[in-house]
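Key idea: predict the complex, not the pieces.
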Amino acid sequence: MRMPKPLRNPSFVIGAAITLFIVGCAVLAPHVAPYGVEQMDMRNRFAGPSLEHLLGTDNFGRDLWSRMVFGARISLMIALISVGGAALIGTVVGLVSGYFGGWVDLVLGRITDIFLGFPAIILALAIVAVLGPGIVNVSLALIVVFWTEYARVVRGATLVLREQNYVQAARALGAGPLRIIFREILPNALGPIIVLASLGLGTAIIAESALSFLGFGLPPPAPTWGWTLSYGTRFMRDEPWLAIVSGAAIMITVLGFNLLGDGLRDLLDPRQLSRGRGERRKA
Amino acid sequence: MMTTPATMLADKKPVLAVEDLEIRIRGEHGSFSVVADMSLAVAAGETLCIVGESGCGKSMTALALLRLLPEAAEIAGGRVEINGRDVLKLGAHEVEDLRGEEIAMIFQEPLTALNPVMTIGLQIAEAVRQHRKVSASAAMAQAVETLKLVQMPDPERRARQYPHELSGGMRQRAMIALALACDPKIIVADEPTTALDVTIQAQILGLIADLQKRLGSAQILITHDLGVVAEVADRVIVMYAGRKVEEASVYDLFDHPIHPYTKGLMGAIPRGRASERLADIPGTVPPMWDLPKGCAFAPRCPGASARCLEERPLFEEKRPGHFAACWEHDDV
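Result:
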């Protein structure tokens, strides 16, 4: 008996497993975290992993496992909001731009270029510096940085899809532009959007961690991974554990989303699958 | 079941009338016309076939009727009237109301003309709700009814399936159901059977003819297949290089073809004799941006005279109800 197609795709399976684990930890944080986020134990600083402290403790004797688990909440929350917002804005801009073309496309295209012209992290830093820290503000900064990618991809897909016969057929049945964009084109463009979004979650987590690392994320004592990594580097020489654990949390999560995204891309686009694997399918 | 040709429609009121339609394309060769002096009329219950080879402007004409021409093409002149309303003067929203409700189109490739990510039933229901204010469930019921009308086997189940789950013939039935969803008065079918197997072709043609008899709609069928024409047409327009070259009732056309191009097309129909060698028409169609001064067919015509090369022939009545554009034809 053959396994269902998704289960035969190793990237998808591993990515989904990691993602499920991280999301599960974040959702159930109060239940899986044995200690409070700010619960200090000064006699037990920089403890290594033990049954008492699964991942050891930090410079204040706080349980790292608990901090990582609650940190996952912050990272995932910001990643979800920013990717959701960016995908929403980018998709609408891309659909409108690609479908109507002409001067609409020109104007929206130039606006996209302007956003693309700024180095992403500088733009995000500037926005957080102006708005101040906080989950919403960091998310907003990341939305501003990331929406352009969706706009470009969706515009490209729309340019192809709007020429499809079924779009013409829908038009011949009296469908107006709104209906065609949202009922005919968007559902067919969802594949690349979903793939981009799952890969984007990883990118967003890195970006959020970078902001936190630089001190522009949520301020301490919030248990952000980026900030933990940042102050972990201060003790790097004698107590590398802190930086390793927080760095690994970031890395594993991003790896999970990337594998998931790659797996989804293979599953949603049969043509992509054949590339380099000698498994060409008939068009 | 003889019907009268365009200019003799005194007894029947046409639901669709086209007068002197001209379509131009802006391209690398500048602006040139791909359809010119196109006039036609169809009455309810009547089937008009437009015949010609690829690129003769028959599909362009069809798209122009629904104002669906591609961006590079524009209607440069003429009138298109549906039930007395001038389609070319309507605003964007009025045209949208017209499409599907008054005039609908059946497309050539049923696979690509159906949305791959929507079930058949939902697509038809969408088309219904486009024009009628009905609930989603009522629209779905209507969709199933329409699928029954096109003799879709097991319509309730098919309505829940996606296009890729259907066979070619069923897809074309679904496509026809989609066009019929809002009970349009005029149906334009652009090569509806070209993409299908021969056996399925016959079924679909039978279905189209049957539906027309039951619904009494006016029909324009575009094809390059004279066999199809013989089977379903009441009247026929033969197009060459963007113009009408001949128009007659289907009987007159097949019994006494006038234009050498029409005769050439008929010579190219296989009759099933083993020893037979198909007659072809020598030469190729001239490019639309560089048509000869006189008759566009003259360079390929076996009977072309000096006059044919110099002067474009008039489209005139050669016999009662039988029109053609040819200088060299002597009245019978």
